[in-house]
Every structure is written in structure tokens, then in C-alpha cells.
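Internal tracking record. Fields below are filled automatically when a chain is submitted to the structure queue. Please do not edit lines marked as system-generated. If the sequence contains nonstandard residues, flag them in the REMARKS field before resubmitting.
Queue: standard
Priority: normal
Entity type: single polypeptide chain
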Amino acid sequence: MEVETSEDTETSIEYKYLISGASWYPKYSLQLTDESRNGQLSWFALVRNDTGEDWEKVKLFFTSL
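SYSTEM-GENERATED OUTPUT FOLLOWS
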């Protein structure tokens, strides 16, 4: 990546990329109570890292198409 400016400046840059060997899928949990007709549906992501890269302290964002 090359960045050029016409004058001295300070800015932040965000770099995003896709890699193979990374995957995730959603997992759902439904909690129901006997006393009422209410329940709580929650979900979380199960992540698999076969990239060979260390993911410690990495921010992950999940999307589906």
C-alpha cells in the first residue's frame, strides 16, 4: 500500500482484507420458562482459525451474505 499527500498531515488508516482459512457460524440458544410464555433467544458466533496467524486481541466483525 502506498499513501501520498500534497502536504504534511496526520490521519488514521484502516486496512481490511479477506483471507482463506477463517470461518464462523452462528449458534442459537432459546431459553423458555415453565411459568410464562416468555423466552429469551440469544446467539453467539463459533469461530475457526486455520490461517496460521495469531488472532490474539483481534477485533472480529461478522457478516452473512
